[in-house]
Specification:
Length: about 220
């Protein structure tokens, strides 16, 4: 995308990380969403009975389906599978802006830090620049999208399947606002930022370090 915009629309090049990050996150979210739903419900409704193993991912998802598919009608049963994607709109509303903010912030910071090192860059410099950029970008994106994370969680843990299917992200945010105001919308912002900042920093830095090492070896061998 950067090569294409560089030749055809140079002014659009700075926005490539934003678009690419948003598209990639949307695809990942739609593909893996049922697992995310199971994770949230397992955390929220964990059963602790002595001698009984808590339900895993598969049993959790079957429990979600069984609450909807109480009929033998195959058409209704097929429609009931939609419940496995309950709250995906809220997650997209959270993850797409998260990726857009994260990557559009990360790229300029990373390039500026690497430019400071210049041609003398080594593994430590690449690791430090990418981790620092990822940490800052991930923290900012996580803080900015915290209200959407709250809405996503509220929709995923809704026990009434019919209400869950009818809920919208806007309605959920309004309910949270009425119940707790700004404080309610940013519930858990500390742990969210504390996880996202290091997580993005580690992923980006190790990816770039491996790429740098492989590139150096390829140049040496040739």
């Amino acid at each position: 995308m950067e090569d294409f915009t560089a030749h055809n629309a140079p002014r659009a090049t700075p926005y490539v990380p934003l678009v690419a990050g948003s598209l990639a996150r949307s695809l990942a979210c739609a593909t893996c969403y049922p697992i995310e739903l199971a994770k949230t419900r397992m955390q929220a409704f964990k059963e602790t009975q002595v001698g009984k193993k808590p339900p895993g991912v598969f049993r959790t998802l079957l429990g979600v389906l069984s609450s909807v598919n109480g009929t033998n009608n195959s058409q209704n049963r097929l429609q009931g599978y939609r419940v496995l994607w309950t709250g995906m709109g809220a997650q997209l509303a959270r993850d797409v802006p998260f990726s857009a903010i994260c990557w559009s912030t990360l790229e300029p910071i990373r390039r500026r830090l690497l430019n400071l090192v210049g041609e003398e860059s080594n593994v430590v410099a690449v690791l430090g620049a990418n981790f620092s950029a990822g940490f800052v970008a991930g923290s900012l994106a996580a803080a900015a999208t915290c209200p959407l994370d709250v809405a996503k969680t509220r929709r995923q843990i809704e026990k009434d399947p019919m209400r869950a299917l009818g809920m919208t992200t806007r309605q959920t945010l309004m309910e949270v606002w009425r119940d707790g105001g700004i404080k309610g919308l940013f519930t858990g912002v500390g742990p969210r930022v504390g996880r996202a900042g290091p997580s993005v920093g580690i992923v980006v830095s190790f990816y770039e370090v491996v790429k740098y090492v492989l590139h150096q070896r390829f140049e040496t061998s040739s």
